[in-house]
Design a protein that fits this description.
The chain is α+β, with helices and mostly antiparallel strands and 218 residues long. The protein is 14% helix and 29% strand. The protein has one domain. The strands form two sheets. It has a six-stranded antiparallel β-sheet with strand order 1-10-3-8-6-5. A four-stranded antiparallel β-sheet has the order 2-9-4-7, covered by helices on one side. Strand 5 and strand 6 form a beta hairpin. Zinc ion binds next to loops.
Length: 218
């Protein structure tokens, strides 16, 4: 039985990956169909930038607009799926103890940090995405609007959007079940110039497991 660093047990199954991602680090891997990817916000208020693609043909990839349209909300949570541009679910959110993630704010980049904060060459999620994508022969053309787990971008009724402190507390987690084999690229956001990480980027834990088939767990 595996546990998260916060003591939460994961359901029975075969653990394929269990690692702590330091702030500013990236991870890219193919999560096989049926496996569950858990991302644990170990200390709270930590944005985790997330992109995913059909592993067999990565020209099919996460589509933020369709995901929001099918969910009927910009705030995806348990029960919603992350859809590809081909109308297929790549992942389904099967557990979510936080309940607030961002679908519209996008990833930080060196260029946007320069534009917004006047600082050059900052560590950023876009470069992390590129590092991860490169491992699979992909590049700039493959970066699309991404999901930000545990990031809080509220939108007011007048359309004004904020970028405010995350609502996650230490140990909050999201479980994503892969609906097909999914190439997944994650950046543990290094941003220090806005509240998306509480101005203090912290580690997250990532666990991938293949649940036991029902007859095996009986
Ligand atoms: Zn970032």
């Amino acid at each position: 039985m595996s546990q998260t660093r916060c003591g939460e047990e994961i359901p029975r199954g075969t653990v394929l990956e269990d690692r702590v991602m330091a702030p500013g680090s990236h991870w890219a891997s193919i999560v096989p169909q049926g496996a569950v990817l858990r991302i644990v916000d170990l200390e709270g208020k930590q944005a985790v930038d997330f992109l995913c693609y059909a592993a067999k043909d990565p020209s099919e990839r996460y589509n933020a607009a369709d995901t929001m349209k099918y969910a009927g909300t910009i705030f995806v949570t348990k029960g919603h799926s992350l859809y590809s541009d081909m109308g297929r679910a790549l992942y389904t959110i099967v557990e979510d103890t936080c309940g607030r993630h961002d679908t519209i704010g996008g990833a930080c980049s060196a260029e946007s940090n320069h534009f917004r904060y006047g600082v050059k060459n900052t560590p950023n999620c876009r470069d992390n995405f590129l590092r991860g994508l490169e491992e699979f022969g992909l590049g700039k053309k493959d970066i699309v609007a991404n999901l930000n787990l545990f990031m809080n971008v509220p939108v007011r009724s007048d359309g004004k959007m904020g970028l405010t402190d995350g609502l996650s507390v230490p140990g909050d987690y999201v479980d994503l079940r892969a609906e097909i084999d999914v190439l997944t690229v994650i950046s543990n956001c290094p941003q220090t110039r806005n509240p998306c990480n509480g101005f203090d980027p912290t580690p997250v834990q990532l666990i991938v497991w293949q649940p036991l088939a029902p007859e095996e767990s009986a």
